[in-house]
Amino acid sequence: MLIWLALSCFLCVFIEARKLTPFDLDTSCETFTNHNTDYEQTLYKLWEAHSERINHPLMLNLQKLDKFYGYVHADEENLLHKYNSFDNVSSTILNDIYAELPFLNNNIDNLKKYKENAIYILIRNYELDDICETILNYVNRVVYPYYDFVFLNDKAFDPYFIEKTSHYILNRINKGSERLAKQLIRISYGLINNDIWDPLQNIDEYNPSLNLTRLKENWEQQEKDNVLYGGSRSYRNMCRYQSLGFYKHPLLNDYKYTMRMEPGVKYTCDFDPFLELRENTKYAFTIALLEYENTIPTLFDTYKEYPFLKYKQAELFKFIQGSDDGYNRCHFWTNFEIISLDWVRSVEYNNLMDYLDQKGGFYLERWGDAPLRTLAVVETLNVNEVQWYDIGYFHNPFSSCPGSYEVRKLRKCCCDAWDPENMDKIPNEDAPNYNVPLGLQDFSCLKEWWKFGEGKHFLFKDYDNLFT
Length: 468
Known about the structure:
Blueprint: H1 2-12, H2 37-51, E1 62-65, E2 70-73, H3 79-82, H4 91-107, H5 111-116, E3 117-122, H6 128-141, E4 148-153, H7 159-170, H8 175-184, E5 187-191, H9 194-197, H10 203-206, H11 212-224, H12 233-244, E6 257-260, E7 266-267, E8 283-285, E9 288-290, H13 299-304, H14 317-320, E10 330-332, E11 337-340, H15 341-344, H16 347-358, H17 361-364, H18 369-380, E12 386-388, E13 393-395, E14 398-400, H19 405-410, H20 446-452, H21 463-467
Parallel strand pairs: 3-4, 3-6, 4-5, 8-12
Antiparallel strand pairs: 1-2, 6-11, 7-13, 8-11, 9-10, 13-14
């Protein structure tokens, strides 16, 4: 009803020399009330967002009526255009606006981020059950989960996988939210080129110094030596692709940031992966821990031979510096990471990755993407471009749960801060009433990050405004 009043008011003052937007209201009109100012201001902001190519569904499919700059709701019956009485306008339209006004008024400037950023998932068809569980958890933890999803696979996705994952992403308990999700979220399913996924198929072209027969013998020995995934060729392909391949896939061309999602993970606190990013952040993580030493025996020495090495001047080097200038094995756990795609597409990042790739460590040893990403952070970024997320997160066998009671309360966490696997928990110490002492597990590197990185903090500064 109020939209119709606003549009009627607009028409009564339209005869002016200047061009009007649909939201220029004349308060002298008898139909004008202070109450519809909320609609006028919100719709104006939506129009500004729309002009920036942010197609938020609460533009209500307003369509342009030639030169008069009038807009009508283009539902199936075109109600506002067809009828002269606002009594015939569907209440659904008004209810949708009422429901979304608080969010829009507080977050209109952030709407653009919904179209610039995406949830990225590298997955196989048989991991369907695990990813559906994770998506359902994500939808209930991210307050406004309208980000796009990009699924990548080295095999074609089967139709059932596509049907089920799309259903879990778009389905909502609230029908209004479900309509918004279906209009706002784009879901893409991409196939990775086989030559890119498995370069050993053309081993002479990839790296003439490698021999596939000797590699397989080496993998068998690593399996016997209990190197984690030491016998797996596909795991090595995955680590290599996550290090230097995923951001080149054409389905990610239009995005600025991605959050990596893995099947089977749990988010146990409320958060927003992109609205919480600081303006200059290029890399964000939640867990930092030690890498298995037998997977990377020569990685750090290889890195130090990089011809453009500048780590000695890098602010972040102390985070990974061990005794005798060696590697302390600290790395950011990449199964949860938020990445600036501009950063990983940069010349500096790719020069380093290409150099390490040509050394053959992904296949001669079992280099993982996490220590390589960490070296790239150290080599190319400053401390203020890296951000730690103090959220509840579980990926078997490790978990993260905020140690502060206030953080857990504000984020509505359901994680156990006293779980022995929690990164913030002192091993074998009895829990106090509310706050977990930050002694940290021996396998955690967060204490190194707080010492040499950004320091200890508890909350995104605008958390109250964002989630309450």
